[in-house]
Structures are given as structure tokens and as C-alpha cells.
Amino acid sequence: MPEGLNALLLARIQFAFTVSFHFIFPAFSIGLASYLMVLEGLWLKTGKGLYLDLFKYWLKIFAIAFAMGVVSGIVMSYQFGTNWSVFSDVAGPVIGPLMAYEVLTAFFLEAGFLGVMLFGMNRVGRKLHFAATCMVAFGTFISAFWILSVNSWMQTPAGYEIGANGQYLPGDSWFTIVFNPSFPYRLVHTVIAAYLTTAFVVGGVGAWHLLRDKANPHARKMFSMAMWMAALVAPVQIFAGDTQGLNTLEHQPAKVMAMEGHYESHPDGAPLYLFGIPNDKEQRLDYAIGIPKLSSLILKHSLDAPLAGLDTIPDDEQPPVGIVFWSFRVMVAIGFAMLALGMWSLLARWRKRLYDWRLLHRAALVMAPSGFVAVIAGWITTEVGRQPYVIYGLLRTADAASPLDAPAVAASLLAFVIVYFAVFGAGVWYILHLMHKPPHPGEFGVKRGDKGPIRTAGITPGPTQDPTDRSTRDLSGDKQEPETAP
């Protein structure tokens, strides 16, 4: 075993690896479930088959992403009992019920209606199917609600009591535990991030197909919807991130100091460092490039407001500045790149070039995975910035780990790496394969030019019906008047 790779570090690497794989799937499925709800709602309201085609196109992708999110989440939870048994014992009376609520409400809600959403198109009425889609979308939000409540309590613990055996026990009010000081800010910021992640994936897929055929009506519609989302929601996300930063400054000042690279206190206004190389050993930011007093203006709304630095924090309570400093900048840079692309799309609309400005389409294609990078960078900022605590200010990470030998943790880590890259790599490849194909009338396996009865998930054309005719069929199989071209 190489020097320095002790059991604690390996356990942290294992959890970081598995949660990073897991996080990208809920970040996508939360937003995609809501997008599917919007598409089906628009189809029911307008009667345009184009929305139904897009719904079925993205439904296949959602099913795979949702399944991989569930599997990776279940596997990840076992580490609480293997690598972090002390944490589970000490904090279990608080976080255990919260995680159980997530299963009893969100997971059961999603599981109960997911089958209807995936396979019930011609087996239930239109309203019931739309209700199932809404329930799945609502379930993904509820899941995020409980998981973020657990994680936020670890960031800003509140409402607890310390028992005789050192356990953290619920106090008089669960409301104080659930709605701890950082939870509302982190919930808003994370859920919006999930919506933006989905929007840029949808926009990237739309851009890909516009580059191949700019007349494709399905590609046009999903690209337009995604760019509206980017233009309208990216500014909201920047504002939400700013409010969360102010909350973090109040409750976790050391994390903000690391994010800003402030090793030294600034009594007369702190600069905003754009670039620098953190030097924890010397407690300074080498090659720093910054804007004088701008950090004080952002964090304190005053150019001359004093800001404390890491020189006020004991060395053994400081987070690793280098990781936090750069992950924060990656997240912020991507956020402003999203804003820039959204504004660019507004310019394209105004100039009536949204569907033929190829440079815009290429930029959207490059930005397609940016949401995943941003959410992982944000998670790294949040979690590494909390160090050296697993429950901020109460339980150190070193004291929360199980008493395991390094080789045992290394073996399980290696197994996770091999299995995750094989299984989830194949799943991601298949999702990309589905995205590579353009959406068209008659999704779920009904192709242009096919005739005769075809049985697929949710579609069973009659023996004399042209399966490409989406205008004469609704979810319940009833006939309706032909619609005009979308």
C-alpha cells in the first residue's frame, strides 16, 4: 500500500467516487421528469403530435437514467454501514428517519407511478397518464428535498440534543432539523442546477440534430425550449448561488475563505481573486490576480467591509484550499457561460437566426455536458469545504470512519471502479446512442414507412392505421380530428 493511502483517505475516495457517479443521474432525472411533464401537458393542451413525439423520445432516456440513479444510490448507501459505521451510530437517530422519509414518500411515489408513465400510454386515460407523469416529477423533487435536508443538517446542524452515549438525538422539533439554516438555500440552488443541467442536455441534443438538418421540427422545438430555459433560469441560478454564498459565510466562514483564497484577513476590503495557486504550507495565494475590494462588495455589499481570513482559523480546522478554490471557480465559470449562451440565444431569436446560426448550435453542443461538470464542482466545493468535519463543528471525519484496514477498503474501492465504469459506462453509451438518433413521428420503435400492426411500449396501431399518422391517435387510443402541421 503506497504511503499516505490510509483507510480513512481510501474511504473518502470511495465515497467521493460513488457519489459523483450517482449525482449525475438524479441531477439529470429531476429536470428531465419535469420536462416530460411539460411536454405531455403541452400535448394535451394543444393537441400537437410534435410534443407527444418529444415526450416519447425523452421518456426512453429518462427510464435508463432513472434506473441507473436508483442502482447507484442503493449501492452508495451501504457505505454508511461499512466505511462510516461510527458516523451512522452517532448521527443515525437524526439522519436515519430523514432518509427513511425519502424512501417512504419519494421513492414509493416514483415507483408507484413510473410503470404507468412508461407502459400505460394506451392502457389508461390521458388524464390519469398525465397525473402519473406529474407524480413521478413531484417524486423526484421530494427525493431531492429529503436528501438535501440530510446533507444540509450535516453542514449546519440544528435541533439536536446530545444523548448520554454521545449520540445526536432529535430535539423538541423535527421542523428545526429538517429546515436547518442552510437547507432552503441549498434546495433552491441544487434543484435549479438540475433543471439547467437537463436544459443544456436537451439543448445540446437539439443543436446536434439542427447541425445535421436545420429543418427538423422536433430539433427546433426542443432547442428553442432549452434556450428559453437557459436565458430565463441561468440569471436566477446566479442570484440563488449568491444567496447561498451569503448563508455559507454566516454559518461556515472557513469554507468561504477557502473558496475566495483569503489566507489573510482584510480589514479594509478584500479583493476578489480571479486566479492564483493556493499554498497551504505557506498560507498564501501565489501568483494571485484579483480585483481590489470586490469580494467585500459581493459578500458584504460594501467596498470597505472587513473580511476575516484563514489566519483566524486554527490550522487543523482549515479545509484543503486548493480543491475548494478551483472547484468553486469551475462552477462559477460554467454558470456565467450558461448565462452567456442564454443571452446569445435571445439575440439569435431577435435576429430570427435561432435555427440557422451554426456557431450558436456548436456552442450549445459543447455546453451540453456543462451542467454535470457544474454540479460535480459544486458538490466538491460544498463537501470538501466542510472538512475536517463530517458534521460541521461537531464530528470530525477522522472520528467518523469504521475501524478498517487500508487493504480492505482498497479492495472494495477497486471493485467499485471496475463495476461502475463497466455498468454505468455501458448505460451512458446507450443513452448517447439514443440521443444520436433524431426524434421523429412515431417514437418507441414505430419508424417512417412501416405499415401494419406494430406492438411497442405504449403504442399499438390498428391493422389499417398508418403508424406514422400521429394526428389521429391519443393516449387512450381514441380517434380525434387531424391536426395542422406543428
Distinctive features:
disordered C terminus; 15 helices; 486 residues; two-stranded antiparallel sheet; 6 strands
What does the overall shape look like? globular
- Give the N-to-C terminal Cα separation: 63 Å
| Average pLDDT level | 86
What is the strand arrangement across the widest sheet? 1-2
| Secondary structure: number of strands | 6
From the alpha-carbon coordinates, what is the Rg to the nearest angstrom? 25 Å
Total number of helices: 15
Which percent band covers the strand fraction?
Answer: 5-15%
Q: Which parts are unreliable, with pLDDT below 50 for 5 consecutive residues or more?
A: 445-486
What is the helix content? Answer: 55-70%
How would you classify the helix and strand content by structural class? mainly alpha
Biggest sheet details: 2 strands, antiparallel
Q: What is the H/E order?
A: HHHHHEEHHHHEEHHHHEEHH
Put the structure in a nutshell.
The chain has 486 residues and is mostly helical. It has 15 helices and 6 strands. The strands form 3 sheets. A two-stranded antiparallel sheet has the order 1-2. A two-stranded antiparallel ribbon has the order 3-4.
